[in-house]
Structure formats: structure tokens, C-alpha cells
UniProtKB/TrEMBL annotation:
Domain HTH cro/C1-type as annotated: residue spans: 31-71
Source organism (scientific name): Mangrovihabitans endophyticus
Stretches assigned to coiled coil: none
A Pfam family recorded for this sequence: HTH_3
Entry-linked InterPro entries: Cro/C1-type_HTH (IPR001387), Lambda_DNA-bd_dom_sf (IPR010982)
GO terms of molecular function: DNA binding
Protein name: HTH cro/C1-type domain-containing protein
Superkingdom to which the source organism belongs: Bacteria
Record lineage: Bacteria, Bacillati, Actinomycetota, Actinomycetes, Micromonosporales
Length: 84
């Protein structure tokens, strides 16, 4: 996976986590405490600066009572026309 596609995935997952936290009305501070990581660590992940690891995604999904699929959903890339 190229650097730009890795970044796109990291940012999409971060966006999904932020959206689901907002839907559930759970603050980052509260979620960090529930999953046992420092607030600053969660903050870097939900900002898209650092990737979530599998255990963190699973823990967040468990707290939110949603499937990990919701958090890991990444839109398909849009093909560019005439790029040859």
C-alpha cells in the first residue's frame, strides 16, 4: 500500500471513530478511559496522525456496541479519467 493510500485509510478510520463517538455522545476522554489508553494517544489517533491498532478498534467497537466494520469502512478510490 502506498504512503498516500495508507494515509487515506488512517484518515477514513479516524473520521469513522470521531463520527461514532459523536453519535454515542462519548467524549474522547471518556473513551480513552474506557479502553485503557491515555487521552493524548486517542487524540493523535482520532486526528488521523497515527493509525489505530486492531486491539484499539476492537475495544472502541465493543464500548460503542457496533461492528468493527463500521469503524473500518473506507470508501473505494475514485478512478481518474484519462490517467494513462
Amino acid at each position: 500500500m502506498s504512503g498516500s493510500s495508507t494515509q487515506a485509510v488512517r484518515e477514513a478510520v479516524a473520521l469513522n471513530v470521531r463520527a461514532e463517538l459523536a453519535k454515542a455522545r462519548i467524549s474522547g476522554t471518556r473513551m480513552a478511559a474506557k479502553i485503557g489508553i491515555p487521552r493524548s494517544t486517542l487524540g493523535r489517533r482520532i486526528a488521523g496522525e497515527v493509525s489505530f491498532d486492531a486491539e484499539e478498534i476492537a475495544a472502541i467497537a465493543r464500548v460503542l456496541q457496533i461492528s468493527t466494520d463500521v469503524l473500518l469502512a473506507v470508501p473505494a478510490p475514485v478512478p481518474t479519467v484519462g490517467a494513462a
